[in-house]
Amino acid sequence: MAPTIMTVDDSASVRQMVSFTLRNEGYEVIEASDGKDALAKIRPDVKMVITDLNMPNMDGIELIRNIRAKSGFKFIPIIMLTTESQAAKKQDGKAAGATGWIVKPFKPEQLLAVVKKVLR
Amino acid sequence: MSGTGKLVQESLQLLGDVRKKLNMLISSREHEFLALGENIMSLSDAVGGVRQRSAELVELVSGEAIYSVINQLADDMGRLHELCSVGSESNLDELVRVRSNLHELIRLIQSYARVVRTLQMLGISTRIESARLGTDGRGFNTLADDVEKLAGKIVEYSGQIVQYAKNLDALADEASVRSQIMLGDQQTCALEAASGMTDRVHLLQDAAQAAKERSEHVDALMSDIAASMGQIVSSLQFHDIVRQQVEHVDEILESVSRMVIEKQEDSSPDEELVWIMDVARLQAMQLEHSRDSFSDAVGQLSAGLGQIASNVMHVAHTAVSGDSVAGSALDSISQTINDTAERMRGVAAQGGEMGETMSSVASTVADMAGFLEHIEDVGAEIELIALNASIKAAHTGDKGKALGVLASSIQRLSQDAGNQTGVIAATLDTVSSSADSLKSQARSFHDATVINETIGKLEEVTGSLRALGMQAENLASALSSEAGDIAESISSVVRGITFEKTVGKELSAAQERLQGLVRRIEAAVPDAKSVRRPAQLDQMMNRYTMKQERDIHLKAFGGQSDEADDDNIELF
Fold it and tell me: Domain total for chain B?
């Protein structure tokens, strides 16, 4: 069975694009519009989270901390997908427990390469 | 309120108006972007479907199946050619030999005439000598009677053999004519199978090669189109990026407005105006960049989609652009197979007739052999009678001396006749063997089983090829039709992309309003350079998330970015 991946972004168009790219490769996708929504929707079968950084209600860094605090998700890969490219921000993400960082705009094949590498 | 104080209020009002417009500008259009995204993704799926079909087409026309069938066809045609080439040329040679032997037979039989004449003379002489001897030669009259009677039988049998031989010669002549016709038909058949069919198989191979190259070309085009669709899907991110840029402009305008309204810094109206001017100038640049990026992105999206539509149309045309060489070659091969089959069946029928003729020849030869046996019996009988007469003549003493000579002559003659009969029998045996061989050859022609089997195989193979060709044609046609639909849908999507004009216009309007404000403040505060800028303003204006924004900021203040355009992916 294909792994389930959660995409978290306040932009519906980004969620749409990420979901399309992943579903085309056979992945199951769960969409969430911000950190809070993601925490409500996350399931034990989710194998990876791809999240934006700047979102209303709960941002990406806080989401990572919350997910890491949940039982069963301590080692789940979490990739940041954001327009933010400053080293300090990346450092914040890494400190919070992010697995990787992708700066928008990205190419679908780049996203897929990261997903495959991380899930392997 | 002072002039500058009034301008501060007007500036704050303007910033509020610009913010309101910007707030609505991108977020209110999200449904349009989502609909565009849905359309593009659905087209991408459709392109994926056609890509799959093009791969199936390549598999079908380049796969082992089609070449294996063509090779099978070539092999079966080779077999047909072999069948046609089993010529009746050897029959003709055999028939020439038969006729030559029959002529020899007639010549040999005719030499019996000399034997008969001598026998008749010896018979008369025996009768005369027997009369001269009176009672002593009485028994020799019987010898004379027998000799005359036997001479008559030889005449009768040899006459019959000659007649039969002449009849056989006529049959062999007829068989030669028939063999000539068969040979002609076989040569035509072999020529058709060899040259015509080989050419058509080559045509078929060329057509298969052309179809293979065409389908590979279509597949490569579809692969490029699928990759381009991926880029188009990826380009949809521009909406999110521009949205964020506009949001950042809004946030900074809001921050500077709040800083002034809430008097967060101990400030004079001139200072507040300069702070607003700095922010307005910078955000006008950010909006200009956003507008240009947005316009470029939409332009590239439309151009990319237009190019894809054009490429998909090219695929639609290319997929069905193959000529009907394969079809016409197959029609031609089928026609040749039918013609060859008909001709081969004709040859088989002629073979049947030939077989009957040869059976008749064999039967006649058997009759002739019977007559020859009679002649042999006659010879043996004469020999015995002559031996008996010689003994009788010896008993008669000197008186019977002449009769003894006659009896010896008769005995020698019968021995000569016997030798001659042996030669005739050997010749007749040769004719008989030739007839058997011709009969067997004719029987193999008459057996149409192998022909029918080969023709059946050929029909099956051409049927398979026709089915494969039809399958490929249907697949190409469906692919072409789907590609045409996709091209039309893409064109329709491109025609529907109009929002960039409105968005661009509104971003330009906001930019111009901010620039107008900058000009007004520059005029109101000529000594703006010397005005104090608090640290809060610097922090506010440096609050960016995107490198593009930071680059514009630095450019505005005469700086240069030291951020490298690194790989946008980092795994920790």
Answer: 2
